[in-house]
Amino acid sequence: MGAVLSPICLAGPTGCGKTAAALAIAEVLPVEIISVDSALVYRGMDIGTAKPTAAEQAAVPHHLIDILDPAGSYSAAEFVRDAKRLAAEISARGKLPLLVGGTMLYFKALFDGLSTLPRADAGLRAEIDAEALARGWPALHAELTTLDPETGARLAPNDSQRIQRALEVIRLTGQPLSALHAASRDDGVDWALFALEPSDRAWLHQRLAQRFDAMLAEGLIDEVRALRARGDLSLALPSMRCVGYRQVWEALDAGDFSTLRERGIAATRQLAKRQVTWLRSMPQRRVIACDGPQPVPELLAGLQRLLG
Hints:
Elements: E1 8-11, H1 18-28, E2 31-36, H2 54-59, E3 62-63, H3 76-92, E4 96-101, H4 104-112, H5 122-135, H6 137-147, H7 149-154, H8 160-173, H9 177-182, E5 192-197, H10 201-218, H11 220-229, H12 245-254, H13 260-280, E6 286-289, H14 295-307
Parallel strand pairs: 1-4, 1-5, 2-3, 2-4, 5-6
Helix pairs in contact: 3-4, 5-6, 5-8, 6-8, 10-13, 11-12
């Protein structure tokens, strides 16, 4: 590997095999893993996040997992701060920082920098919420897409939290969110990016269905039931809006689990589709077909070529 210890990033949609690939890398390279996942930061959310097991975390050092209570929130700015600090510390130990995950907003913030965005405006948010109640979030998404095509293209029509924030920024600053992000690009670090991407969507869809079935079998409903029993969590929190948790929470609210599997799988597919869309906006990535004949050996060969 020589003396080169520049960070390596491994991204991909949910269910593509990132954890297994990262552990395979750890068998041949002296890495420490930095999680790039907005759900893995939460304690007590293990099954629905497909959190690496205790044995997997013991096999190689992991960072940014179980750092926050589900009642809290963790921003992209906080991730960038923590990831840069950890990458520097890992490199100083003579190890290779390996950033692994599927939260593409975190990757984008890391690669492109974060603009100085206005603080949340409670009054304006209430106004946008009222508009959404009257017109529906898809209508506000259409408005956003007209004002900020780049941001609109990467958000789902019902992604209320991010649509609200993007419209809020436009109304407060008069500028689209994408333009503010572009103005803050920081090219100080070369974050090499490998992307595990499916060439066949049907392959990924089958894996996602199997993955959600496995989560249900492992006790996802009981995990969410225990979180609800705390009494201080709700669907207003980012943690409980995570895919899988939201669908189970809503099923518990309704007392009806007849459509839970269908809704959970559909939401997971939508998440994966958005993740792939984000990835395709990152031209610097080196693509590995996760449904290819030998994705891990191909990934390892690519890493060896890069590191020398």
